[in-house]
Amino acid sequence: MPPIGLAVIGAGYWGPNLVRSALAAPEFSLQWLCDLNIDSARRVLGNQSTVASTSSFDEVLADPEVAAVAIATPAATHFDLVRGALEAGKHVLVEKPLTPTVDEGRKLTELADRTDRILMCDHTYCYTPAVQRIRELIHGGEIGDLQFVDSVRINLGLVQPDVDVLWDLAPHDLSILQFVLPGDVVPVAIAAHAGDPLGTGRACLAYLSIWLSNGALAHVHVNWLSPTKIRTTLFGGSRRTIVWDDMNPVARIMIHDRGVDLIGSGMEQEERRETLISYRLGDMHAPAIPEREALKNVMAEFAGAINEKRQPLTDGAFGVRVLELLEAASLSAERNGAKIAVSNRGAE
Predict the structure, then answer these.
(1) C-beta separation of 233 from 149 below 8 A
(2) pTM recorded for the entire structure
(3) Average pLDDT over residues 184-197
(4) 324-338 pLDDT, tens per residue?
(5) I need a labelling partner for 317 at 20 to 30 A (CA). Which of 57, 78, 100, 266 fits?
(6) Sign of CA dihedral 227, 175, 323, 18
(7) By the 8 A CB rule, do 277 and 263 touch?
């Protein structure tokens, strides 16, 4: 199929990465880079680029050669930009979070349905080879029944002027959780405790607990104040446990055949008090994970959804479900860690 005409909106932090990936993707033909600061757009493109630059979003939308836009602007601008692009008949890839609120996210997803356009949320971690392998392992039953998830995402990070640590870092972990969960398992409630020891007016560290419909519990720790950078998640199952260390390029994923079994687990509650604990001390292996840039997979999925007229893996409804968890976590933190039920309504 001929390349899809694409425009990138935003030349700030993430926009240059989208430009680079779009230029390298055979599925797309990059036509425009749009930014309110035209000089920023020109610096990103360089002197030799054949891609046009503009500060006018309307100019981009008026171009019939542009069939899709990739938006990398502050979250507060997402609703108006995505709505304008969908109403102009463009397919949309938008940086996470989809919008600042669930209500706005649902409106955009409904608009995408009405206009028959693709709306995809760029939850980049879901397209890393490691996370895609973890999804395959869990969905394929390799670890048995999911029993717990324990995630740590901490570093010495920049205190953001417009969002707290929940909305900056937790979207990664919550989107990964949504992505790898078996189809019959969903989050049902969340609780969060957050702290601002520096007095910045925004939470700089947070601890989240997410209850799942199968009785499992997930825990997420996010922190801007740690002197060490840790990116580790454990997915514990009844048969095996996956340890994902994103800072270890040699063995990003390790699968442990170690765990705890309860002998006589089929007994009644009174009888189970007399049962014995058995420890499994099996092997560990590290499957080979191909090193492929996640954004290449993002671009391929976006193009595939457009050409095949199907929903992408992280569509608008997926983005809304992540927003539901974030909003509930923020509400819980405001209420000193109260347990908040989540609906998993998505775009409904």
Answers:
(1) yes
(2) 0.91
(3) 96
(4) 999 999 999 999 999
(5) 57
(6) positive
(7) yes
Residue written as token pair 């927003």: 323
Contacts of 4 (CB under 8 A, 6+ apart): 27, 28, 29, 67, 68, 91, 303, 306, 307
Structural contact between residues 24 and 8, judged by C-beta atoms closer than 8 angstroms = no
The SS3 of residue 179 is: helix
Cβ neighbours, 10 Å, residue 174: 28
Question: CA 308, CA 21: separation in Å to the nearest integer?
Answer: 21
Alpha carbon distance 192, 335 (integer Å): 9
DSSP, collapsed to helix, strand or coil, labels residue 78 as helix
Question: What pLDDT band is residue 157 in, cutting at 50, 70 and 90?
Answer: confident
Angle between helices 129-139 and 294-308 (to 10 degrees): 60
Contact 54, 41 (CB under 8 A): yes
Condensed to tens digits (0 to 9), the pLDDT of residues 259-280 reads: 676 666 555 665 555 566 666 6
- Pure H helices in 154-310: 165-180, 269-272, 294-308
Strands (DSSP E) along the chain, which ranges?
4-9, 28-34, 52-54, 68-71, 91-95, 119-122, 146-156, 187-195, 205-212, 217-223, 225-237, 241-245, 253-262, 277-285, 340-341
What sign does the CA torsion over 105, 302, 75, 190 have?
positive
C-alpha span between 346 and 105 (Å, rounded): 9
* Cis peptide bond N-terminal to 100, omega within 30: no
* Spatial contact of 67 and 6, defined as CB atoms under 8 Å apart: yes
Nearest by Cα to 294 from 83, 149, 82, 129: 129
Cβ(94)–Cβ(123) below 8 Å: no
